[in-house]
Write a structure and sequence with these properties.
Layout lengths: L1 E4 L7 E4 L8 E6 L2 E6 L9 E3 L8 E4 L2 E6 L8 E2 L4 E3 L3
Parallel strand pairs: 1-3
Antiparallel strand pairs: 1-2, 2-5, 3-4, 5-8, 6-7, 7-9
């Protein structure tokens, strides 16, 4: 089982702490809660995994702040990166 970390309670993504293989279980820690998801595809160390479904054009939240907008619907357990979000940072 791999691990991931939620930075803020409002976040809809977590950061994986090691490379994750498709269908691998990921234990997601944040505050006093732990969630387990199955990865939909490979996710490299340091990248993001969706905690829940993120709809097209929805805000992507990390650190409790908007880091981007979804350019497609993203399912829970999916890799979240430049292929499916557009940055809203300068």
């Amino acid at each position: 089982m791999s691990r991931a970390l939620v930075m803020h309670p409002k976040d809809n993504v977590a950061t994986v702490l090691e490379d994750v293989s498709p269908e691998q279980s990921v234990e997601i820690e944040g505050g006093d809660k732990t969630l387990t998801l199955s990865a939909k595809q490979a996710i490299p160390f340091g990248h993001k995994i969706a905690l829940r479904k993120i709809r097209l054009s929805a805000k992507v939240l990390k650190y409790g702040e908007v880091i981007g907008t979804a350019t497609q619907e993203i399912s829970a357990g999916s890799h979240v990166h430049v292929h499916n979000i557009k940055s809203t940072r300068g």
